[in-house]
Amino acid sequence: MSHTERIPRRILHTSDVHLENHNDKACQCFEATIDAALRNEVDLVIIAGDFFDSNRIDEEVVNFAIKQLQRLPVYAIILPGNHDPLVPESVYFREKLWQQVDNVFIFHDPQGEIFELPGISIWGKALTSYAGDLRPLEGVLINQETGLWHVAIAHGYYVSDDSPLFPSYHIAWQEIVSSQQDYIALGHVAVYRRVCDDPVKAYYSGGPPISRSVNIIDFREEIGVQVTRYSIDEERAIEN
Fold this sequence. Notes:
alpha/beta
């Protein structure tokens, strides 16, 4: 398959859902997010960190999340963030709960790993501590196979060349532009934000309880990569 024959793909990108208590605002927003994924007939759902507000979440909330994910006819992939990192008590190590769902992939490798679906390759690196000098996009891998769209997921703060305001989870401009990705799904910021459009598209989706939206990304050769901010309240695109 040549580069120009890549198959069209559509992804829903969200982050920072912060599920905490059953039937709270975050749960309602996540249910609306799944509704948006179904309406837009996406091929994949990405949750770019902080799906849960902490690792102390009770089983009722985890079961709610799993029930919602089971509504999807496609894969959902989850990147552990700084609120729900892969520490020994991680919610993602509750294997008996996660065995209920077979359409979910959770990133576990702290060095980064690639998950593949037809036509698309997704790289992510799980956060493994609540704080520290972790670089979420450092070491991003490129699948050299042709005919694939390339997506990376990173949970952290975008920083320019200026002195960063925050001490950890830095995602640098140079890391983005040299990553060779078609799209970078960013998490850790509660509002929608476009970080870069060229040569790599890198966007924060914002957390649905705050942004009231998700990102819908279309990958098609005739248009390239097109990012649409989509309301979870009014079933429409949002002008930016």
